[in-house]
Amino acid sequence: MLTTARVDDHLRGRTLRIDGLSRRFGAVSALDGVNLDLRAGEVHALMGENGAGKSTLIRILAGLDRPDQGDILRDGVALPYGQPAAMRAAGFRFIHQELHPVPGLSVAENMLLDHPYPHRFGLVDWAVLNKSAASALARLGLDHLDPRGAMSALGAGDQMLVRIAASLIGGGAWLYVMDEPTAALTTAESERLFDVIGDLVRQGAAILYVSHRMAEVMRLADRITVLRDGRHIATHIKAETDVNRVIEDMTGRDLGGLFPARAAAPGAAIVLQAKALSSSGLARADFDLHAGEVLGLAGLSGSGRGALLRAVLGTAPRAGRLTLDGAEVGRGPEAVWAQGIAYVPRERRAEGLIMGRSIAENVTLPYLRRFARAAVFLNAPRERKVARDLGERVRLKATTINQVCAELSGGNQQKVLFARALAGRPRVLLLDEPTRGVDIGARFDLYRLIQSLRAEGVAILLVSSDLSELLGLSDRIGVMRDGVLTEILPAADLSEARLLARFYHGQETQT
């Protein structure tokens, strides 16, 4: 059977030092003399905006790229460049937010894809394969996962845990590089991942943790290193710094706190009203959404948060009553958009953007009739002007409005989706995980935009699995369980702990 030996005590003194690492791509300096050290038994967060150099550093650590200069030393011994097998032999394991499992295979088969399957008499020895997978899962306390079960039956959180357990097979794992591991996870799934990280650290592993979510970085990290424009800006002991200092290091400016202050309280006018609203995945929702209000939607995976947004958008048949300014809301997305309800989806690549098309084309996509001459020919100059104006409104960073979306950073792709939503001057904005995978600078820009829209009277329905974001932006928060909107509470009365407690049977836990 393949080994899954624990990280032994003799690894607890192991170190990794990155010394003067530089990498250029033409005229662009992706890394410029970066220094970083990692120690066994700690979580070291690597922070920076998109383009700061984090991905380049990870690719070099994985042996997928070669630096122009600098050294990577494990326990004082230099490691070779550009050799993935050598980096794996050195104990490096990489956990990315995009897992790419093979859904048609079992959990055990997915876990051993990087290894030769065990054979007996020329055939796969399924008993040994399943036992190897079960042993690795047990190491992380994942007894609820059946190695013989289908990978396709698991949620994103369990698939992430399977990927981590798979890295234990074969032994020798020491450094785990986790790149945005919670981006697609629910709060409960993230909590399970954090427990596993704690177990790995206690066993002597080192974790290099990359995330845009400040709350979880401040919770997990022992030290925090910040990169900006390819340079090492600072390394902080977590206990000796705070969120504002880290944000200032990342952006080069004082943002005055992550969440901009609210300009005014919501208005009295009801913009969107739902009575006994139901649809696929949504059993019942009753709510009033006021002008200038952000109503957050919270709940566990499968609670119905996204289903409620889709019911409003009209992507599935709905029952009950849904009105916009007193008028019945249309039955399909085209009618809904035309009435002034805009949507920013959670999956910008799969559900939102045509990646090979320009910014201008993506911004105006739902409104092409408005840019037509004689209802036939596109008024391209007007399309580009509208897209440019909206690009300025959302602080879009691009070389030109004709740049294709595939060339933009994740944060700027998200800003294109916001620009599209604003092109129709919406009365209601539906936001599904609006800052997923977005760096801190772009995230602050989007938060400021949301607050400015509130001040203009736009009503916003917000789904987010980031509880700090939900509490920081919302006026009220609706709690969903089993497809039912069970209660709506003032956000000012809630903490993250109290909100989490409402997810489970509506009861608060002692904290």
- Which stretches are poorly predicted, pLDDT < 50 over at least 5 residues? 1-7, 507-511
Q: Within the largest sheet, what's the order of strands?
A: 6-9-10-3-11-12
Number of strands: 24
Q: How confident overall, as mean pLDDT?
A: 87
Taking the sheet with the most strands, its summary is: 6 strands, mixed
Estimate what percentage of residues fall within beta strands: 25-35%
> Which structural class best describes the helix and strand composition?
alpha/beta
Distance between the termini: 43 Å
Total count of helical runs of at least 4 residues: 17
Rg from Cα: 24 Å
- State the helicity in percent bands: 25-40%
Gross morphology? globular
Task: Offer a concise description of the structure.
This protein has 511 residues and is α/β, with parallel strands linked by helices.
Tell me what you see in this structure.
The chain has 511 residues and is α/β, with parallel strands linked by helices. The protein contains 17 helices and 24 strands. The chain has a six-stranded mixed β-sheet, sandwiched between helices. It has a six-stranded mixed β-sheet with strand order 18-21-22-15-23-24, sandwiched between helices. A hairpin with a 2-residue loop joins β1 and β2. It is globular and about 70 Å long. The model is unreliable at 1-7 and 507-511 (pLDDT under 50).
